[in-house]
Write a structure and sequence with these properties.
Number of helices: 2
Distance between the termini: 24 Å
Largest sheet: 4 strands, mixed
Shape: elongated
Number of domains: 1
Strand order of the largest sheet: 1-2-3-4
Radius of gyration: 13 Å
Number of strands: 4
Helix content: 40-55%
Strand content: 15-25%
Order of helices and strands: HEEEHE
Oligomer: single chain
């Protein structure tokens, strides 16, 4: 199994653990990318170099989305983790 194959499996496991997101390993970017399944007017994408960073960003975005639902603030459109 190659390096990228392992990362594809990690992305699959992350997606199973986070059903509100489509998560993939983006070989061309060398990052994990997550696309929200929430029905939004704009795409919501987060990306990070490590699974841990991606999950942190996902949790931050979900918290902001919950706060925005309560206060009616605009939602974030794109987040990048540290490379």
């Amino acid at each position: 199994m190659g390096f990228d194959d392992e990362l594809f499996h990690v992305a699959d496991a992350l997606e199973r653990d986070n059903p509100g997101w489509v998560i993939m390993w983006a070989t061309w970017r060398r990052k994990f990318c997550a696309f929200s399944r929430e029905p939004l007017t704009a795409s919501l994408i987060v990306e990070a170099a490590t699974p841990e960073s991606l999950i942190t960003l996902i949790h931050q975005v979900e918290t902001e989305m919950n706060l925005a639902d309560n206060v009616d603030h605009p939602r974030p459109a794109h987040r990048r983790g540290r490379s």
